[in-house]
Every structure is written in C-alpha cells, then in structure tokens.
C-alpha cells in the first residue's frame, strides 16, 4: 500500500509504502490524521510527527538488511517473566521449529514481519518502552503520541532473519478512533498499564477488547505489561504484580513488569515477543505448506525427507495461552 500524505493545501508531504498494512482504508485514515492536524486538532507540532512517521515508513520498506546487531540475535528460547502468567513454559524452541531452522526450511518466514500493537491509557509509558528497546533512550518529558507511530526491529531468531513492526498507539481518547484503525492484522497485542496507577490496569480490559475486535479470535499473542517498575518496590510492587497476574490469567495473556527508565526487563520482554511470534510464524508456514502438498492415492500425504517425528510439543495447539 502507498500512503500519500498531503497538507490542507494539497502539498505533498511524503509518499510512503507501508509493509503489512494492506488496506486502503488505512490510507484514508492516515489522511484524516493529517487533515485533523492541519485544522488545528493537534497544533503545528503534530505536523512534524507526521513528517517523521512518513520518513520512517519510507525507510523501512524491507525488513531485511545485511546484518542484525548482536543483541538482536536469539539463539535459545527466551524465558517468561513469571510462570504464574505465561503463554508457554517451554524453554526451548518447538521441535518442528528447531528442525525447520536447522534445515533452513522456514519457507517465507525470513522475508516476513510480525505486527505488534501496543495499547493502553495515556501516560502509562508505551512510547517510552518502545523507545528504550528500539533506540535505547529514555525521555523524562511527556510527549503525547499523536494517532500512531511505529518502529521496525530486526532480529535473527534461531539463525533466521525475523522482523517486528511495532505500532505505538495514542492513549488519548481523541486519537482512539485513528489508532484503532491500526489494530487489525496484529500477531501480538501488548496492553500496557502503569504499576503506580491501578486504574490503568482496570482499563486494560477495554483496551484489549477493542484491539481483539479488529483481529481473528485466537490469532494474537497477548501480553499485559506493567510499566515504571523503578517507581515501586517491596510490598507495593508485589501487590500490584499479584493483581496484574490475576488479570493476565483472565485475559490469557503473559505478564511482564518493566522499566523504560532503567531498562529493566525491556530487552528480555521484546526478545520473548519476537521468539513467540517467530515460532508461530514458522509453525503456520509449515502447516500451510504441508496442507498444500499434493495427495496420492487414498489421501497419503507425500512426506518431506528428514521431517521430524511428531513430538508432544507438536501435538499442542499453537494458540496463545497454552503452557
Ligand atoms: N519513572 C519512570 N517514568 C516513566 C517510565 N516510562 C515512562 N515514564 C514517563 O511517563 C511519562 C509518559 O510516558 P509515555 O511513554 O510518553 O506515555 P504513553 O503511554 O506513550 O502516552 P500517550 O502517547 O499519550 O499514550 C513520561 O514522562 C515518561 O518519562 C518508567 O519506566 N519509569
Ligand atoms: Mg506515546
């Protein structure tokens, strides 16, 4: 898809392809953001944000590049934050996935990217979390996200290139209808709340419901993330986490506490997200290809040589929530 961004006078600001957002209604909505800015809903500073978004969309056409940085190389399966609320307890890659990666039999996975959407109340720290991970920076000053923003992050998982397209959405009510247009097609939904403000935890139900409405049931991995961990310690932290873990289990989400300020758990969290999304992509690709294989005689499936025997793991559904 190509987005042409123009100001109110029709001047072309940028033309930009957006990978994995294959719907022309997104282009229309993007123009709505721009028009809203020009008519003064967000002020002139918003225009700069849109220009920068357009610039980065333009520069992220392909998820693949020559190399990924060493700290984006994932060789063993990243661990959960707490076994009390995790999507799966395995500490190694799924048998079929390991075999596929070893034999470089991962189909188109290395060419694709997974869409991650981050939602939650305003001021909970969504942008800070993403910026800490993608740019290793932390800004004490609050700058509200206008509509949506995104980052691309390249990984190498089990030797295979893999990218996350991380969408940062605005928590402010007035931008909600714009941001929600970007929920669809998500492989991962991250619902963030502020550990020091338990009201924001209560609101995560609604954020999740809204994000899930735009996606196929069971298609997304769900994460509940408590932010600003540096501001809490001892019993207060334990109590907030216990409540969050309870809710995460209700939501069938994996729970993490993080701090964008100190960086605590940020890299581990996104590595976990990348590994789970990658694993599911490979499994889906294998499944797609095996169901596309021609049938012989009474329905015998032609098997690939060296295909590993079915393991306990492989019998499990790959849906989120399976521990
Ligand atoms: N102490 C501390 N402050 C944080 C942390 N993360 C974010 N903040 C602060 O919280 C404020 C809000 O952070 P943002 O990341 O802009 O919040 P947001 O969720 O993106 O807000 P919207 O874009 O309006 O939805 C900023 O002043 C940040 O500096 C953290 O881990 N620790
Ligand atoms: Mg923000």
From TrEMBL:
It is an enzyme of class 3 (hydrolase). The keyword Transferase does not apply. The keyword Magnesium applies. Residues 288-323 are annotated as: Disordered. Its cofactor is Mg(2+). InterPro entries: P-loop_NTPase, Rab, Small_GTP-bd, Small_GTPase. Keywords: Golgi apparatus, GTP-binding, Hydrolase, Lipoprotein, Magnesium, Membrane, Metal-binding, Nucleotide-binding, Prenylation, Protein transport, Transport. It catalyses: GTP + H2O = GDP + phosphate + H(+). One of its GO terms (molecular function) is metal ion binding. The small GTPases Rab are key regulators of intracellular membrane trafficking, from the formation of transport vesicles to their fusion with membranes. Rabs cycle between an inactive GDP-bound form and an active GTP-bound form that is able to recruit to membranes different sets of downstream effectors directly responsible for vesicle formation, movement, tethering and fusion. PANTHER family: RAS-RELATED PROTEIN RAB. This is Ras-related protein Rab-36. It comes from Monodon monoceros. The lineage of its organism: Eukaryota, Metazoa, Chordata, Craniata, Vertebrata. The gene is RAB36.
């Amino acid at each position: 898809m190509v987005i042409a961004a123009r100001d109110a006078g029709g001047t072309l600001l940028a033309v930009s392809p957006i990978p994995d957002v294959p719907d022309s209604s997104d282009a229309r909505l993007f123009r709505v953001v721009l028009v809203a800015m020009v008519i003064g809903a967000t002020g002139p500073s918003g225009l700069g944000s849109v220009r920068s978004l357009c610039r980065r969309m333009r520069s992220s056409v392909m998820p693949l590049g020559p190399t990924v940085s060493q700290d984006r190389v994932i060789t063993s399966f990243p661990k959960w934050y707490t076994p009390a609320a995790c999507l799966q307890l395995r500490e190694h890659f799924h048998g079929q996935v390991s075999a596929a990666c070893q034999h470089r039999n991962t189909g188109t996975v290395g060419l694709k990217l997974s869409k991650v959407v981050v939602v939650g109340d305003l001021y909970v720290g969504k942008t800070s979390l993403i910026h800490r991970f993608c740019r290793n920076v932390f800004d004490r000053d609050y700058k509200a996200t206008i509509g949506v923003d995104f980052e691309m992050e390249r990984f190498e998982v089990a030797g295979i290139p893999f990218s996350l397209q991380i969408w940062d959405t605005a928590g402010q009510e007035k931008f909600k209808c714009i941001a929600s247009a970007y929920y669809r097609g998500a492989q991962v939904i991250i619902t963030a709340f502020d550990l020091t403000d338990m009201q924001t935890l209560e609101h995560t139900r609604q954020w999740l419901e809204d994000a899930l409405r735009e996606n196929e049931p069971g298609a997304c991995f769900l994460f509940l993330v408590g932010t600003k961990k540096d501001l809490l310690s001892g019993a207060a932290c334990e109590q907030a986490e216990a409540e969050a873990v309870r809710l995460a289990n209700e939501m069938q989400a994996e729970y993490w506490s993080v701090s964008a300020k100190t960086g605590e758990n940020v890299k581990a969290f996104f590595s976990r997200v990348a590994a789970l999304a990658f694993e599911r992509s490979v499994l889906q690709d294998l499944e797609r290809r095996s169901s596309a294989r021609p049938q012989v005689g009474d329905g015998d499936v032609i098997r690939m040589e060296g295909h590993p025997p079915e393991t306990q793991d492989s019998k499990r559904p790959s849906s989120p929530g399976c521990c």
